[in-house]
Amino acid sequence: MNRNKPITLILGLLLIFTGFWAYPKINHFFKIDRCLDRGGKWNYETNECESDPQEKHVLLQKTDSTNSYNQPADEQNRSTYTVSAHNTDLENATINRPEKTKITNPTIDTTKLFKIWTLTPDGPHADFWIKSTEFYIVDYDGDGAMQYILDHDRLTIFHNDFIQKGKIVSVSLDTLKILWDASEKPTLYIEWKN
């Protein structure tokens, strides 16, 4: 039994020294990985993640805990939604919401806009309903009715915990295209007819 104690001690010390040697290398690998996952570029000379200020702003918008999943834009192409902090309004409003919807000098035909819209016409439900008085997120846990401002072609939707903005690119009898801020391309919606 006395022979096992020195072997155990040597193995323990060897494990500790290996950990001290490996930790910086593993930590460095994960820093680079996180940088690249966020769309940044790793500078090996300075050992820092680089992104231009515009990219940094977009990255912060996309990773902000209250703004990380933009349900109407569906940037992640989810077929089902889960209830989380990203798609549920907070119980107490944290932003100043207007008392009512405001439409100013629309440059689009609002009679074509005020409909129920969906990303996938074969899906189980629509995504949102734009009325003259509210923007309503369908299948929304909490208060799905939200005030909005339509100024020319700029749409601003007031959730309890964040403000969502976009530009209405086009609207026809059965299609709607919105370029949501921080999105690279417009999102195409089809009129919900089920």
Describe the protein in words.
- The termini are far apart.
- The longest helix has 34 residues, at 4-37.
- The chain is built from 3 helices and 12 strands, in the order H-E-E-H-E-H-E-E-E-E-E-E-E-E-E.
- The radius of gyration is 25 Å and the shape is elongated.
- A 10-stranded mixed β-sheet has the order 3-8-9-10-11-12-4-5-6-7, with no helix packed on it.
- Helix content is 25%, strand content 25%.
- The protein has helices at residues 4-37, 53-63, 110-113; strands at 41-43, 48-50, 102-104, 116-118, 128-130, 135-137, 145-146, 148-151, 154-158, 163-171, 175-180, 187-191.
- With 194 residues, it is an alpha+beta fold.
CATH C-level category of the largest domain: Mainly Beta
Strand order of the largest sheet: 3-8-9-10-11-12-4-5-6-7
Distance between the termini: 77 Å
What CATH architecture of the largest domain would you give?
A: Beta Barrel
Global shape: elongated
Give the total of beta strands. Answer: 12
> How many H/I helices?
3
Topology:
Layout: H1 4-37, E1 41-43, E2 48-50, H2 53-63, E3 102-104, H3 110-113, E4 116-118, E5 128-130, E6 135-137, E7 145-146, E8 148-151, E9 154-158, E10 163-171, E11 175-180, E12 187-191
Parallel strand pairs: 3-8
Antiparallel strand pairs: 1-2, 4-5, 4-12, 5-6, 6-7, 8-9, 9-10, 10-11, 11-12
